[in-house]
Amino acid sequence: MDFSEIEVYPPAELLIKRSNVCDQGGVGVVSTHPVSSGLKYQLKGQIVNDITQHTVEINPNLHFLDTQFTGYILHSCQPNAQLDMKNLTLDILRDIGIGEFLTIDYAKTESKLFRQFACSCHAPTCRRWIKGNSEVISEKGSAFIKSLSRVYP
Ligand SMILES: [Zn+2]
């Protein structure tokens, strides 16, 4: 496995950019060069106690804050990358082309999200409403799911 030891952070081939594909705040991390499956990026940031929109969970009481890179990676229910919060790496799961946004599954790391949200990632396995892996679906989420079942019974 290739391990990219990076001197520039965030890695030069990854750029924080405004996205028009999602309703997750409008900003994501896009690749400016092809990124190969199996690549790992060492993450840099600080350990904090509170959840923010740009933190990733290490455990329910400790969160990782990286406002240069990690905190802007978008969610997908079928992501092209995943976080390893033990080793603090981003692991690329499949080849990523130029201009493609990096994605992770937020529910893989987060027991509780800063904010639950509707997902429109278009994956066949899309869960439609994204929440932390140990929290209950919010009222807004239940209403949203119910409205979908009226459209697609
Ligand atoms: Zn989805």
Describe this structure in words.
Strand 6 (55-59) and strand 7 (62-65) form a beta hairpin. The radius of gyration is 16 Å and the shape is globular. It has a single domain (3-114), classed as SET domain (Beta-clip-like). With 153 residues, the chain is mostly beta strands. The longest helix has 13 residues, at 139-151. The chain is built from 2 helices and 13 strands. It has a 4-stranded mixed beta sheet, with no helix packed on it. The protein binds zinc ion. Residues 77, 119, 121, 123, 126-127 line the site of zinc ion (ZN).
Question: What distinguishing features does this structure have?
Answer:
globular; binds zinc ion; four-stranded mixed β-sheet; single chain; 153 residues; 13 strands; disordered N terminus
Given helix and strand content, the structural type is mainly beta
Total DSSP E strands: 13
Query: What does the average pLDDT come to?
Result: 89
Give the termini distance in whole angstroms.
45 Å
Helicity, in percent?
A: 10-25%
**Overall 3D geometry?**
globular
Highest CATH level, the class:
Mainly Beta
Query: How is the biggest beta sheet arranged?
Result: 4 strands, mixed
* Overall structural domain count: 1
Bound molecule kinds, no repeats: zinc ion
The CATH topology comes to Beta-clip-like
What is the CATH H-level superfamily?
SET domain
Strand order of the largest sheet: 1-4-10-9
Low-confidence stretches: 1-6
Number of helices: 2
Gyration radius over CA: 16 Å
CATH architecture annotation name: Beta Complex
Query: Could you state the order of secondary-structure elements as H and E?
Result: EEEEEEEEEEEHEEH
How much of the sequence is in beta strands?
25-35%
